[in-house]
């Protein structure tokens, strides 16, 4: 990811004219690419950063189907009732020879641009954007000069007392097991396969201070209210809370980064146009625009972001530290194979 000076891409009049092509929902013209997204604030950001400019440049309309999930898409393939032409999702299912997914055309999509990315191009999936969990903390409990540096301080209850909010056990605590092992002296290049039992032993001394969230939406609210001193919150939600005047801020040490990927379901009606859309979204000339609209970072390492952009100081990597406090990027292959079993073990540990 690089910094750039932004230039105007779409005129206001063009945005207004194209809005009719961008309604959220699975319906629309048979010529339109149906793009499964998460909806919400991200939908507006996607439209401004990418989808409206794409339609203006190519003449191909895009209709969002939101909220869309990988499970919903896979069910549609099984039922031979595919409505989406492309979908964004985390890499929770194999994307090498998956019969539910189309092969991506890397004569159209420039895979070489991702050679230096921690998120790898796969035969049936390409990285799209990066999001992260950060150590959010209450600024009234830890004012300037006494604030934590990041997730490592989850283990320091003497200097940073109070509850720590953790993700649901179903996540397998991806990123947090790596954190515990790094804290216990395991070199980063020797983390995998993860020693789950050793990681849980590292958490044992602070177990009484861990609160597991039922919903990630609780994170910012509970930290800002002082019900928890720190929380594993999403970077964008934390920044929005801060801008809304809540007593919350980000400690960037060991931020945990993941990517959403782009897929084409098997049997997509507009596969060729979806391929063109995906090539546009991930190209270095376009991928960085998302940071102008929301606190996501481009997955393409060659993409540039505006150094004066509204969200540039809150996107993943914006406050990245080095050494032991450097960002953690969980190994996607290991977690795809082991997440269910690890989640079961963590649930049992929490009950013990």
UniProtKB/TrEMBL annotation:
GO molecular function, one term: thiamine pyrophosphate binding
GO cellular component, one term: outer membrane-bounded periplasmic space
Keyword flag Transport: yes
Residues of the signal peptide: 1-23
InterPro entries xrefs: SBP
Keywords carried by this UniProt record: Periplasm, Signal, Transport
SUPFAM superfamilies the record matches: Periplasmic binding protein-like II
Subcellular location: Periplasm
UniProt entry tagged with the keyword Transport: yes
Main localization category: periplasm
Pfam family, one: SBP_bac_8
Gene Ontology biological process terms from the UniProt entry: thiamine transport
PANTHER family per the UniProt record, alphabetical: THIAMINE-BINDING PERIPLASMIC PROTEIN, THIAMINE-BINDING PERIPLASMIC PROTEIN-RELATED
Protein name: Extracellular solute-binding protein
Organism listed in the record: Microbacterium lushaniae
Lineage, uppermost ranks: Bacteria, Bacillati, Actinomycetota, Actinomycetes, Micrococcales
């Amino acid at each position: 990811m690089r910094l750039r000076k932004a230039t105007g891409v779409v005129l206001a009049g063009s945005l207004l004219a194209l809005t009719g092509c961008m309604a959220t929902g699975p319906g629309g013209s048979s010529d339109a690419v149906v793009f499964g997204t998460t909806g919400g604030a991200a939908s507006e950001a996607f439209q401004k950063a990418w989808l409206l400019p794409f339609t203006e440049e190519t003449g191909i309309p895009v209709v969002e189907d939101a909220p869309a999930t990988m499970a919903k898409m896979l069910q549609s393939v099984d039922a031979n009732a595919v409505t989406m032409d492309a979908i964004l999702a985390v890499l929770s299912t194999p994307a090498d020879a998956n019969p539910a997914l189309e092969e991506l055309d890397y004569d159209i999509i420039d895979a070489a641009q991702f050679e230096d990315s921690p998120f790898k191009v796969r035969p049936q999936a390409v990285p799209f954007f990066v999001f992260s969990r950060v150590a959010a903390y209450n600024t009234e409990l830890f004012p300037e000069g006494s604030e934590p540096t990041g997730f490592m301080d989850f283990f320091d209850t003497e200097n940073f007392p109070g509850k720590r909010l953790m993700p649901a056990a179903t996540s397998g605590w991806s990123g947090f097991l790596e954190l515990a092992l790094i804290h216990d002296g395991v070199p980063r290049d020797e983390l995998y396969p993860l020693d789950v039992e050793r990681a849980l032993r590292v958490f044992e001394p602070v177990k009484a201070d861990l609160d597991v969230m039922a919903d990630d939406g609780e994170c910012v609210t509970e930290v800002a209210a002082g019900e928890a001193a720190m929380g594993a919150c999403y970077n964008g939600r934390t920044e929005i809370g801060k801008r809304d005047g809540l007593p919350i801020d980000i400690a960037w040490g060991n931020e945990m980064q993941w990517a959403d990927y782009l897929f084409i379901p098997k049997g997509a009606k507009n596969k060729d146009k979806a391929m063109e859309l995906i090539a546009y979204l991930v190209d270095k000339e376009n991928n960085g625009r998302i940071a102008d609209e929301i606190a996501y970072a481009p997955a393409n390492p060659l993409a540039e972001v505006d150094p004066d952009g509204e969200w540039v100081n809150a996107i993943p990597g914006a406050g990245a530290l080095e050494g032991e406090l450097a960002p953690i990027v969980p190994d996607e292959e290991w977690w795809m194979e082991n997440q269910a079993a690890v989640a079961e073990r963590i649930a049992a540990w929490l009950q013990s």
